[in-house]
UniProtKB/TrEMBL annotation:
Keyword Cell membrane found: no
Residue stretches making up the TLC domain: 130-331
Annotated Gene3D superfamilies: Homeodomain-like
SMART domains associated with the record: TLC (SM00724)
Source organism of the structure: Cavia porcellus
Full protein name: Ceramide synthase 6
Catalytically driven reaction(s): sphinganine + octadecanoyl-CoA = N-(octadecanoyl)-sphinganine + CoA + H(+)
Lineage per the UniProt record: Eukaryota, Metazoa, Chordata, Craniata, Vertebrata
GO cellular component terms, A-Z: endoplasmic reticulum membrane; nucleus
A matching Pfam family: Homeodomain
Keyword match Transferase: yes
């Protein structure tokens, strides 16, 4: 074990040439980031998760009720033992051959059976109230942490001149504000890493998992080798759009469509400007070129920059989705349904009549959650 630890913490990987871990030990004159500081993130992640539960129960839920957001979910499928057995034991997405067999067995038309399976799948999805509470929690946290980041950074020299991220590197002391900012962000993303398995499931679950993992690795890497100054720039920059997204989603769930559209436009502008403009021209410029000039490359430097490039790849993917939604909005006159929506919909999905042999007699609606559409939900900070 000692040999493995010695290999993992090899100074030639983590630190610039001629720098050792002994050089970065805490003294009475200066405090530096220590790897063991990061253990604090785990109990804090649990505390953040508990705060979230309390917030959603006693703050977000009353707000949702005050906005007339109901706890009821999608329409309940008509009880049917045969279809229920197929759904639970065989498949939730029957193919055409199985649908025809069920149609003959039940004397139902295929379209009604398809509708039943859609409704049954949607029964397992969370209600609009649950979605609102999740978005309100994330909105509150993102707004707080972004505000804190701005207040902290405006007093630092590296916000105004990024070369200060590398002057006297790695002998840059760790301040209390910077330590709090880093541990808070790391704790939040650890809480997301675990809670995403119980949160609302969406089509880009795998991408979000990769995003959270990359974010945690970036925070960890930049803290251990004391790249925390540039790390704070990444955190604050990429947090800037997240609160707008969650606000737009809350407006959407509350059926304030004009407000939703306005907030979504603001979110799209901020997201694309920060992720595709400022991030590569400001952050990647300093991590690749200014740091190369002032400090020079070393192994963990390469890993850190590769993680930043991976994060930028995710930024490009989400920007594509945002532009796609915006194009649909222009043609339809409102923010369109999120391509990652976890509620299925079609023109006949929410028929109010029970399944039968004459589906053309049933009335139809256009949605499944009582809202006007779904927004992109990828809060992608080093986030998302």
């Amino acid at each position: 074990m000692a040999g493995i630890l010695a290999w993992f913490w090899n100074e030639r990987f983590w630190l610039p040439h001629n720098v050792t871990w002994a050089d970065l030990k805490n003294t009475e004159e200066a405090t530096f980031p220590q790897a063991e500081d990061l253990y604090l993130a785990f109990p804090l992640a649990f505390c953040i998760f508990m705060v979230r539960l309390i917030f959603e129960r006693f703050i977000a839920k009353p707000c949702a009720i005050a906005l007339n957001i109901q706890a009821s979910g999608p329409q309940i499928a008509q009880p049917n033992a045969i279809l229920e057995k197929v759904f639970t034991a065989i498949t939730k997405h029957p193919d055409e051959k199985r649908l025809e067999g069920l149609s003959k067995q039940l004397d139902w038309d295929v379209r009604s059976i398809q509708r039943w399976f859609r409704q049954r799948r949607n029964q397992e999805k969370p209600s609009t109230l649950t979605r609102f509470c999740e978005s309100m929690w994330r909105f509150s946290f993102y707004l707080y942490v972004f505000t804190y980041g701005v207040r902290f950074l405006k007093k630092t020299p590296w916000l105004w001149n990024t070369r200060h991220c590398w002057y006297n590197y790695p002998y840059q002391p760790l301040t209390t504000d910077l330590h709090y900012y880093y541990i808070l962000e790391l704790s939040f993303y650890w809480s997301l890493m675990f809670s995403q398995f119980t949160d609302i499931k969406r089509k880009d679950f795998g991408i979000m998992f990769v995003h959270h993992l990359v974010t945690i690795l970036l925070i960890t890497f930049s803290y251990v080798n004391n790249m925390a100054r540039v790390g704070t720039l990444v955190l604050c920059l990429l947090d800037s759009a997240d609160s707008l997204l969650e606000a737009a989603k809350m407006a959407n769930y509350a059926k304030f469509q004009k407000l939703c559209d306005l907030l979504f436009v603001m979110f799209a502008m901020v997201f694309i400007t920060t992720r595709l403009g400022i991030f590569p021209l400001w952050v990647l410029n300093t991590t690749f070129f200014e740091s190369w000039e002032i400090v020079g490359p070393y192994p963990s430097w390469w890993v850190f920059n590769l993680l930043l490039l991976l994060l930028q790849g995710l930024n490009c993917f989400w920007s594509y989705l945002i532009i796609k939604i915006a194009c649909k909005a222009i043609s339809r006159g409102k923010v369109s349904k999120d391509d990652r929506s976890d509620i299925e919909s079609s023109s006949d999905e929410e028929d109010s009549e029970p399944p039968g042999k004459n589906p053309h007699t049933a009335t139809t609606t256009n949605g499944t959650s009582g809202t006007n559409g779904y927004l992109l939900t990828g809060s992608c900070s080093m986030d998302d």
